[in-house]
Amino acid sequence: MAPLNVNYKILRVKSLGDSNVTESHLASLGFVKDAVIKVVNENDGNLIVSIKDSRVAIGKDIAKKYW
């Protein structure tokens, strides 16, 4: 996945397709193009990320759409 504690800029977001998490919900959390995101913890592909002064847990299926 991505190394911990490194800032990344989201360059694009792949379509989530049939995922039960909507793109609009992720966008409301800050997962949009040009946002800065940092992985603070990883466990078996599931991530805790820092974005917009918040920490958000995302599953590995969603994480793959960003890395």
TrEMBL record:
One of its GO terms (molecular function) is transition metal ion binding. InterPro entries: Fe-transptr_FeoA-like (IPR007167), FeoA_core_dom (IPR038157), Transcriptional_repressor_C (IPR008988). Keywords: Iron. It comes from the Bacteria. Coiled coil: none annotated. Residues 11-65 form the Ferrous iron transporter FeoA-like domain. This is FeoA family protein.
